[in-house]
Amino acid sequence: MFQIETLKREWLSNPRGDILAGIVVALALIPEAIGFSIIAGVDPRVGLYASFSIAVIISLVGGRPGMISAATAAVAVVVVPLVRDYGVDYLFAATILMGVIQLGAGFLRLNLLMQYVSRSVITGFVNALAILIFMAQLPELIGVPVLTYALVAGGLAIIYLFPYLTRAVPSPLIAIAVITALVVYTGFDVRTVGDMGELPSSLPAWLIPNVPFTLETLQIILPYSLTMAAVGLLESMMTAQIVDDLTDTPSDKQREMKGQGIANFFTGFLGGMGGCAMIGQSVINVKSGGLTRLSTFVAGTFLLFLILVLGSLVAIIPMAALVAVMIMVSIGTFSWASIRDIRHNPWQSSVVMLVTVVIVVWTHDLAQGVLAGVILSGLFFASKVKRMFTVTSELSADGLSRRYSVSGQVFFASSESFVDAFDFKEVLDRVVIDVSQAHFWDISAVGTLDKAILKFRRSGAAVEILGLNAASASMVDRYAIHDKPGTESYLGGH
Length: 494
Description:
The protein has 494 residues and is α/β, with parallel strands linked by helices. The chain has helices at residues 4-12, 15-40, 44-61, 73-78, 80-86, 88-107, 119-137, 146-161, 171-186, 215-247, 253-269, 279-287, 293-308, 311-314, 319-333, 337-341, 347-363, 366-387, 415-420, 443-458, 470-479; strands at 69-71, 275-277, 390-395, 401-410, 430-440, 462-466. It is 62% helix and 8% strand. Helix 7 packs parallel to helix 17 (347-363) and helix 12 (279-287) packs across helix 15 (319-333). The two termini are 53 Å apart.
């Protein structure tokens, strides 16, 4: 049941900070939404409508208060071939299906996969995103008048120095207002938001994508929808974790997954493109004082107000002012401590972080970088656990029996070491294998146990296994063959 306490905590606990932060985010969303629309090859209103719709809906149903979701470059890049080959209506249909897939992922609790993303991967993801945010500003900094650099520098000076005077108003908002007033008053000829594309003048309308409702259409859009859903959820879960750390508060990631699906589903019917959480805008929001759902709601609604009511004023905002804000986001997002920690952290952690950064920046694909980082983390972990495995042995006084004591984790990576630890050429009457300090994790481990026992038996030794724990015994009882009839000559593994 909806509680008044929940309403106060998630919506009304920080109204002033949330409203001001939402305004800053809305201003920063406009050029980005237009830019993402251009990347996808669609009209600017598609990205703007998507940013409005996703932000408002996710503020109501998402699981991470204070996080900003809207149209993003990560999703825009994926749909370029779809729009080029089939048209914008197929984009809307793919966005709707993307929402359905994400909603299903939420019910399947795929958010639990985040447990396998190491801190090194998250740090690499953050650093790579900071670099990409800065790189995205380069078109506004290359081949422009020297005046543009002065305006960007002035904007950064205001952003970083104004808080020493007062924190009552977010400094990025002051920077945007001052730089805009300066350009309007002096008549400086610099690029403005209006140069990015025409702003829409009407509310988004409910529509049904004009595509055939056939299996062929599903075959066209399904690969794109799956990729959009995966990239969107990955970026959203990573961003939620970062906002958790920034605010020192928990989030409901399963609810966030479902919320992303609901937001994208309805956005497709409103003529918008798919989107997800935006780390850059989320950092702007938090650093500007936004902490609750109200900040995200204000960002979405004020974005629509800006483009419909104040479109003529928004159009004259210099891009230099917004570039300054995004450079501030880039600097604030990058984990500078991770550079210092490279010398002190385990080298495996540093390699994972650096590989994640390089792949993300090289491919401009967050999913590929994170996937590579997760795989590399898994390999390093398996290698570490493998090295923790030991086998010692003791020969009996009469020289006819040997006791092997196994300690550590026996699984696919350590199975070869397990077999190599035994001397099958030694002539013995009896072999005892004590595994009370070991654990057998998979069928590869059970297979190596089979192999060792059968080799000893072929050498004429009786073999006794001692100390199997309950979980290992269950695995051995189910998959082992050494105690099955007719397996004396079997020497293979599973």
